[in-house]
Amino acid sequence: MNILLCCAAGMSTSLLVTKMEKAASDEGLSCKIWAVPGDAVKNHINEADVLLVGPQVRYLLPQLKKLGEEKGIPVDVINTVHYGMCNGAEVLKFAKQLSGK
Amino acid sequence: MSRLNDILENKVMPAAGRVAGQRHLQALRDGIILTMPLIIVGSLFLILGFLPIPGYEDFMARTFGDAWLTKLMYPVGATFDIMALIAAFGIAYRLAEKYNVDALTAGAISVAAFLLATPYQVPFTPEGAKEAIMVGGAIPSALMGSKGLFVAMLIAMISTEIYRFIIQKNIIIRMPDGVPPAVAKSFVALIPGFVVIALIWVLRLIVENTSFESLHNIVGEVLGKPLGVLGGSLIGTLVAVFLIQLLWSCGLHGASIVGGVMGPIWLSSMDENRLAFQADQAVPNIFTQQFIDIFIYVGGSGATLALVLAMILRARSQQMKQLGRLAIGPGFFNINEPITFGMPIVMNPLMIVPFVLTPLVMVVTTYIGMTTGLVAKPAGIAVPWTMPPIIGGYLATGGKLSGAVLQLVNFALAFGIYYPFFRMWDKQKYSEEQGAIEITTAKKLQA
């Protein structure tokens, strides 16, 4: 599964990426997980199965949701507490739920 | 306290969402970001030119000849001094993207329009003459840099609006069937391109007959000066910082939203400082991008590194201890989302108080430190916001220890303000944890 994350500069979400990768390998899942700045999403979304948005840029959600609908990719905002505590396992679970896999 | 949350949720958040989602502001911010890698590279050369090591200048002059500094500043001229040109392209490109029209073409038209607004002449003082004469046939590099930034912003917006309007109304030159699509595509830009160029041309002709003489002068008077006052004043900066903190308190990226408006202002005052620093003159501006990024937001928006330290040193609750360990690494690089969302500060009235108060106090103390001359002003070196404290302050002031010391003082100040609030929150978490443990042990005993 390919999980794309986005926030303002792609930096703080990249923290979460490493935690999610770890959670994925613990579960024995093979995932590609990566983080990009909000304005770079459209260059990456084609490779993604699901797009997760950092809560600090949830104002981008309407725009990104529209983009996701065009490509048939589910888009949603990450739970703030899971985001803050870098809870990789929970966010991974959320991504799986969203993509329906 | 829940009234505060109510206001944040129902008033501030929707308004912020609208501002942040506004496509012109987004394009402005995303377009100007294009200049950042360039000026950071330029800053590297700038620092090398003015290393505060005794005997450095002599050593360089002996090794590389007397003109070493001029030569070392070549890359500075090619990065800082084309800021407006790059912005003219970047903003138009990003705006066109949002309208789903060809971004590359929009960028090219915008650059041409920006150059059209710029008189190709530079002042030159011949030897022996007292007054400078204007020499034609040269693109004035001063107007390609921060001085031309506001013109570039305006022209990028106007030209892209015209471009997309004409394309979307489908007023294009149609080619007969059989013409290769790539060729046909190159004709699409002709009509909008002509309209944009003709419009700026007419504007320029009109302005040349007024006392302003050039579009750059008008924009400087009408837009640059008032904005400079806004961004250059203590009140203006306090308002901007307050808004950033308020937005973050709702969990929105305040720096990114407010940066759309304040970014260009802080960028041009940064570059004014750079020019003065390079010419070995007194640095004029206090409030630049680095003032905010480096001296106020030590550890991220809200100066939360002090709060992280409090967690590591004094936390009693498991949750705060764990969060402190998680947040210290990113905190050194001024990334604090683990704190804002994990503690959380977002929508947490108790923590919002110091979160808003701390940076405001620090703006005032830093301002006092810099106006009295106790601390060096930011030298116009584009230190990236991720630069760890102490190093950041040292570099941003052009290698002055006072810059690093100021960061430490601000850090201590932030610690003092956050600490009592942190204790209250930690105590609450601790008793929650104890309560939870008591309940589980009680359950075990019953079972």
TrEMBL record, chain A:
Q: Which residues carry this modification: Phosphocysteine?
A: 7
**Which segments does the entry list as coiled coil?**
none
Show the Pfam families listed in the entry: PTS_IIB
Keyword set, alphabetical order: Kinase, Phosphoprotein, Phosphotransferase system, Sugar transport, Transferase, Transport
Question: Domain named PTS EIIB type-3: which ranges?
Answer: 1-101
Which superkingdom, per the lineage?
Answer: Bacteria
**Xref: Gene3D superfamilies:** 3.40.50.2300
Checking NCBIfam families in the record gives: pts-lac (TIGR00853)
Q: What is this protein called?
A: PTS system cellobiose-specific IIB component
Lineage, broadest ranks: Bacteria, Bacillati, Bacillota, Bacilli, Bacillales
Automatic annotation (TrEMBL), chain B:
Q: Which InterPro entries match?
A: PTS_EIIC, PTS_EIIC_3, PTS_IIC_cello, PTS_Sugar-EIIC/EIIB
Q: Which ranges carry the PTS EIIC type-3 domain?
A: 8-421
Note the topology in the membrane.
Answer: Multi-pass membrane protein
As for subcellular location, the record says:
Cell membrane
Q: Where are the transmembrane segments?
A: 32-53, 73-96, 103-122, 142-166, 187-207, 227-244, 251-267, 294-313, 350-370, 404-422
Which keywords belong to this entry?
Answer: Cell membrane, Membrane, Sugar transport, Transmembrane, Transmembrane helix, Transport
Q: Which domain of life is it from?
A: Bacteria
Location, primary (coarse class): membrane
Q: What does this protein do?
A: The phosphoenolpyruvate-dependent sugar phosphotransferase system (PTS), a major carbohydrate active -transport system, catalyzes the phosphorylation of incoming sugar substrates concomitant with their translocation across the cell membrane.
Protein name per its UniProtKB record: Permease IIC component
Q: What species was this sequence derived from?
A: Peribacillus deserti
Tell me the classification of the organism that encodes this protein: Bacteria, Bacillati, Bacillota, Bacilli, Bacillales
